[in-house]
Design brief:
Elements: E1 3-6, E2 9-12, E3 17-22, E4 28-31, H1 33-39, H2 43-46, H3 61-72, E5 77-84, E6 90-101, E7 108-116, H4 120-156, H5 160-165
Antiparallel strand pairs: 1-2, 3-4, 3-7, 5-6, 6-7
Length: 168
């Protein structure tokens, strides 16, 4: 297991998993020690705070809209996410986010996320797409950003899930 810092970027080995759980509103209810170590916050600075405490400014908002739409509908989602640390550094993850269900009622009671080290080749591609999405978002809002994503997917002939999973 290893974590490396190169400039402002933090990378970590494939055997490291970052885990967190949130309530229905996205407030952190659990985070593993790896999450704490990488993001640089103390546990008491994370528990009860919105998960977007680690959101990096380079992330298009529409990616999180897509994520929330999926998990609130009871579905799982994979996504590449650039997160920020308390010290201003960043780290990329390949995230798997899923709802947590109450066994008795089958109602969603929270969300669970496991993040792992992303494929560096995938990040090169994802960064370009996210950059275009963010530029569109800044000038035309989330609808413009979503259009960039949808146009990209359409040109590739894939769904969002196929796009993300093809770069594992």
């Amino acid at each position: 297991m290893s974590i490396a810092i190169k400039g402002d970027e933090i990378t970590f080995s494939e055997d490291i998993f970052i885990v967190s759980k949130t309530d229905l509103k996205g407030k952190i209810t659990y985070c593993n020690d790896t999450f704490i170590d990488i993001c640089g916050y103390k546990e008491d600075e994370l528990i009860g705070k919105p998960h977007n405490i680690i959101r990096h400014k380079d992330m298009p908002r529409v990616v999180f809209k897509l994520l929330w739409d999926k998990i609130q509908a009871g579905e799982e989602i994979f996504a590449y996410v650039k997160n920020g640390t308390k010290s201003g550094k960043y780290y990329w993850v390949h995230a798997y986010v899923t709802p947590t269900f109450d066994i008795k009622t089958n109602n969603i009671i929270g969300y669970h996320s496991v993040r792992r080290s992303p494929n560096p080749e995938a990040i090169k591609i994802i960064e370009g797409v996210y950059r275009k999405m963010l530029q569109a978002e800044r000038s035309g809002g989330m609808d413009a950003s979503e259009k960039v994503l949808n146009d990209t997917l359409k040109s590739l002939g894939v769904t969002y899930e196929q796009f993300i999973l093809s770069y594992e």
